[in-house]
C-alpha cells in the first residue's frame, strides 16, 4: 500500500490562525485524572489536537463569516430564514424547513409527532440522541443494518445498508402498523462513518411504500455519503456530489439535520419535510421547545452562515479533500499495523480497542481507557464509542455490550493540516506499543442519560 500524499491537498488557504497551548505529559496526566478519565470533561485549552468530534468545530469560510455580518435579527420572518429554507429546498429537495437549535431539537419534535406509545422504529444502527428521543416518545429502536456493519474487519463498501430481511422480519413480528417510520442515517456515524448505497436506499423506499411506512432521513452526513456513492457505486462516477445529495434526499419523506457536521457551521439544525400536515404539527411544537418557526433557536446570522455552508458542503473539491484527509490518517495508521475499522469512514478513523487492549474485558471499558491514554501521550483528544456510549437496557438495567468497542478519531472540517495527522498517527503507534500497561476503568459517577458525556471513571487496580 502506498500513501496518497497529494490526493487531498486542501482547496483553500489559511487566513487566520488560533494559537494552541502546548502541555507536558505530567500536566496531561493530572488533567485526565481531574476529568475522571473522560475526554469530554477536559478543558479544551489543555488539548493540542482535538479529534473529539466533528460537531460544530469546523472552520467557516470567509464567505460564511461575511454572511454573519448580514444577520437579520428580526424576531419573526428573518431574511436569513428564507435564504436557508430556499437552500434546503434547492440542495436537499425538502419543501418545508423548521429551524432548530441543533439536530436533537429536530429529533425531539419529529419523534413526538410521528411516534405513538408501543411503536417500533427500525434504523441502520442507532445514534445516541436519535434513539433516546425515539424512546422518550414511547418507541423501541430496532437495528436493521447489515451484519457487515458490526464486523470491524469486513471491507464491505456499503456498511450503512439496511438488511431488508430484518425489516421484513420486524414487520411480521410486530405489524407494519406499529412502525411509524424507518429512520435512515446517511454515512452512519456509529458504524464508523459508513455509507448506504443509492440502490439500497431505493429498496428501503420501495419497502416503505409497500408497507405504508414513512422514510425519515438523518442527513447529518449526507455529503460524505454522496462522496462514497460517487467513488464506489455503479452509475455515479460522473455525477456531481450536489446531484447525488439531492437524489438521496429526494428518496425520503422527511429529514433531521445537525448542521454542525456536513453543513459547515458551528451551531444549528433543522427538521425538513414534504408533507404539509407534518409541517403544521412541527410548527406547533417548535414554538414550545425551540422558538418561533422562522428561527427555532438560531440567530439570523447563524441561518445565513448555514445557507452558505450548505452550498459549500456539496462542492466536489471540498468533499474529496475532507474525506481524503480522513483516508490519509487511516491509511497511515494501517501501515503502522494499527487495527482500525474497515473501510475507512467519511468523518473519522475508528480504532478497534478490543484488538489493541485484549487484556481489558469489555465491562472495564477498553475504549474509554484507550482514549484517556491517547490524551496523556500527546494531547490528542479522541472519544469512546463502545460500551460506555451504548448505555444500559431500559428493561433489564444491564450494560449493553456492543460488538464494536471503538475509539473514534474524528476530524473537524477544514481545521487541521497533514502535519497534525502525522502527529496523531505517531502518538497512536506509541500508545499501542505500551498497551499492556493500560488499565481498565470503572464508573465513579454514572449519569442517567447519555452517560458518555458526563460519566467519571477510575482505573481498576490489580
Ligand atoms: C450529531 C448527530 C446527531 C445530533 O445532532 P446534534 O446537533 O448534536 O444535536 C444526530 N444524528 C447523527 C448521526 C449525528 O452525528
Automatic annotation (TrEMBL):
<feature type="modified residue" description="N6-(pyridoxal phosphate)lysine">
    <location>
        <position position="261"/>
    </location>
</feature>
<dbReference type="InterPro" id="IPR001597">
    <property type="entry name" value="ArAA_b-elim_lyase/Thr_aldolase"/>
</dbReference>
<comment type="subunit">
    <text>Homotetramer.</text>
</comment>
<dbReference type="Pfam" id="PF01212">
    <property type="entry name" value="Beta_elim_lyase"/>
</dbReference>
<dbReference type="GO" id="GO:0006570">
    <property type="term" value="P:tyrosine metabolic process"/>
</dbReference>
<dbReference type="InterPro" id="IPR011166">
    <property type="entry name" value="Beta-eliminating_lyase"/>
</dbReference>
<keyword id="KW-0663">Pyridoxal phosphate</keyword>
<dbReference type="InterPro" id="IPR013441">
    <property type="entry name" value="Tyr_phenol_ly"/>
</dbReference>
<feature type="domain" description="Aromatic amino acid beta-eliminating lyase/threonine aldolase">
    <location>
        <begin position="50"/>
        <end position="426"/>
    </location>
</feature>
<keyword id="KW-0456">Lyase</keyword>
<protein>
    <recommendedName>
        <fullName>Tyrosine phenol-lyase</fullName>
        <ecNumber>4.1.99.2</ecNumber>
    </recommendedName>
</protein>
<dbReference type="InterPro" id="IPR015421">
    <property type="entry name" value="PyrdxlP-dep_Trfase_major"/>
</dbReference>
<dbReference type="GO" id="GO:0050371">
    <property type="term" value="F:tyrosine phenol-lyase activity"/>
</dbReference>
<comment type="similarity">
    <text>Belongs to the beta-eliminating lyase family.</text>
</comment>
<dbReference type="InterPro" id="IPR015422">
    <property type="entry name" value="PyrdxlP-dep_Trfase_small"/>
</dbReference>
<dbReference type="InterPro" id="IPR015424">
    <property type="entry name" value="PyrdxlP-dep_Trfase"/>
</dbReference>
Amino acid at each position: 500500500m502506498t500513501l496518497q500524499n497529494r490526493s487531498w491537498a486542501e482547496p483553500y488557504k489559511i487566513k487566520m490562525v488560533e494559537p494552541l497551548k502546548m502541555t507536558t505529559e505530567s500536566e496531561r496526566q493530572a488533567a485526565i485524572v481531574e476529568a475522571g478519565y473522560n475526554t469530554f470533561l477536559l478543558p479544551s485549552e489543555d488539548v493540542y489536537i482535538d479529534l473529539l468530534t466533528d460537531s460544530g468545530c469546523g472552520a467557516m469560510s470567509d464567505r460564511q463569516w461575511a454572511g454573519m455580518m448580514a444577520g437579520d435579527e428580526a424576531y419573526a420572518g428573518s431574511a436569513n430564514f428564507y435564504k436557508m429554507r430556499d437552500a434546503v429546498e434547492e440542495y436537499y429537495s425538502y419543501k418545508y424547513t423548521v429551524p432548530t437549535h441543533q439536530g436533537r431539537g429536530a429529533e425531539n419534535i419529529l419523534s413526538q409527532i410521528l411516534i405513538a406509545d408501543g411503536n417500533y422504529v427500525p434504523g441502520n444502527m442507532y445514534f445516541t440522541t436519535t434513539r433516546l428521543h425515539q424512546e422518550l416518545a414511547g418507541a423501541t429502536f430496532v437495528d436493521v443494518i447489515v451484519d457487515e456493519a458490526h464486523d470491524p474487519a469486513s471491507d464491505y463498501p456499503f456498511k450503512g445498508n439496511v438488511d431488508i430481511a430484518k425489516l421484513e422480519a420486524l414487520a411480521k413480528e410486530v405489524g407494519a402498523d406499529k412502525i411509524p417510520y424507518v429512520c435512515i442515517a446517511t454515512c452512519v456515524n456509529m458504524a464508523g462513518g459508513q455509507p448506504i448505497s443509492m440502490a439500497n436506499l431505493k429498496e428501503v423506499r420501495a419497502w416503505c411504500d409497500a408497507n405504508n411506512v414513512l422514510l425519515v432521513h438523518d442527513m447529518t452526513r449526507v455529503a460524505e455519503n454522496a462522496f462514497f456513492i460517487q467513488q464506489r457505486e455503479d452509475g455515479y462516477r460522473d455525477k456531481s456530489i450536489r446531484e447525488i445529495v439531492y437524489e438521496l434526499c429526494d428518496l425520503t419523506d422527511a429529514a433531521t439535520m445537525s448542521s454542525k457536521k456536513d453543513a459547515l457551521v458551528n451551531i444549528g439544525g433543522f427538521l425538513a419535510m414534504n408533507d404539509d400536515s407534518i409541517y403544521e404539527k412541527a410548527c406547533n411544537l417548535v414554538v414550545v421547545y425551540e422558538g418561533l418557526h422562522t428561527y427555532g433557536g438560531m440567530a439570523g446570522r447563524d441561518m445565513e452562515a448555514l445557507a452558505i455552508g450548505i452550498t459549500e458542503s456539496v462542492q466536489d473539491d471540498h468533499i474529496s479533500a475532507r474525506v481524503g484527509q480522513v483516508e490519509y490518517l487511516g491509511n497511515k495508521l494501517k501501515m503502522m499495523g494499527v487495527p482500525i475499522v474497515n473501510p475507512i469512514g467519511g468523518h473519522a478513523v475508528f480504532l478497534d480497542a478490543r484488538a489493541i487492549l485484549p487484556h481489558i474485558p469489555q465491562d472495564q471499558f477498553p475504549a474509554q481507557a484507550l482514549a484517556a491514554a491517547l490524551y496523556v501521550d500527546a494531547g490528542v483528544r479522541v472519544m469512546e464509542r463502545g460500551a460506555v456510549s451504548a448505555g444500559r437496557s431500559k428493561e433489564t438495567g444491564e450494560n449493553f455490550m456492543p460488538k464494536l468497542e471503538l475509539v473514534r478519531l474524528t476530524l473537524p472540517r477544514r481545521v487541521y493540516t497533514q502535519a497534525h495527522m502525522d502527529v496523531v498517527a505517531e502518538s497512536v503507534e506509541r500508545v499501542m506499543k505500551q498497551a499492556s500497561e493500560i488499565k481498565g476503568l470503572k464508573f465513579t459517577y454514572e449519569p442517567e442519560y447519555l452517560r458518555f458525556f458526563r460519566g467519571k471513571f477510575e482505573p481498576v487496580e490489580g
